[in-house]
Amino acid sequence: MKTRIISVFGSSAPQPGSAAFDEAQRVGQLLAEAGFAVATGGYSGTMTAVSQGAAEAGGHVIGVTCDQIEQFRPLGPNRWVREEIRYATLRDRLLHLVTKSDGIIVLPGGIGTLSEMTLAWSFLQVGEVAAQPLVLLGDLWRQTVQTFYSPEYVREKDMGLLLYADDAETAVAHIISYFNP
To answer: pTM higher than 0.90, yes or no?
Structure first.
């Protein structure tokens, strides 16, 4: 049986020692301990943290990178990446992370993370990707979705595609229970 891949989205800003970095590292560790491979954008911040947590726990770490990002931010994949998948454009990188996963955890982040989350949600809604868990970690996402939600535009069943977690343990528990009900 092939190893399931969980894409983890999050900000490039958190630094080692910050609460956001530590939580992302814990997500990577718990995913690896549960037997999942992790895929991230491959660069800094929470991408490094998730990668480090997974690698130190013996997991497989995939970094999905792209030339377009490295044109304005000249750094290669973080040192914890074991398998680099490289694209020319940000669009192709994003599509890979959303469509080539078996589940997704979204950590707090900015505009890029928001676009990753909403693309994954939209693809789940219309069946562009197979049914899978989409876990939103942290109060930021509860507030964002609650502010966005309007029953005249978003159906309740589509709201049901989102799983919420307050901590790394709950986020990974959602992933595990999805595959082992």
So the answer is: yes
